[in-house]
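Sequence in, structure out.
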Amino acid sequence: MSAPMGCRGGGGSAEPGTGSRKGLFSNIWFWRAVAGVLTAAVILVSCIQFVNLSSAKDFPACPSLEVCPPGWLYFQRKCYYLSEKEADWNSSQSHCSVHNASLLVIGNQQELSFMMKITKQDPWIGLYKRNEEFFWVNGKALDNELIEVKGSGNCAYLESKGASASGCYLTRKWVCSLTINSAR
């Protein structure tokens, strides 16, 4: 009796189709690996989006890079313009007003320190004398603990050691400040 076809055992050759099964199995493992990587990527992206949405509720958004007009500097929710030209105090304030800003109003010690570092050539700021007292252009009285004004003039400028006052008709560079609207 002869052995059925395909069941012959001689010659040491592998069973027919064995080579194609090996190729088939390697393709299955390849596709399983691809599916695993894609699944992991989808889970990672989902987690990142969840974290971003969660943290957006807990932390205020960072200001965009275009929050200030071109040529203005950003610091602590304010934009600042340092003029290159000189003008008298009133003209300087008018220039700031054109940009919906005012001459610099300093609100705290950090802002004062920042401005002392970046300003040069004693620019006009938004302080003026009314009835022998200094007021900011926003109407608030000067806090003498924040800054003291030396000099006998009616309009103030920032200098390396604080503020001084001189005649408003003199020409100087100036600093405008613009508070960023928090309801964006």
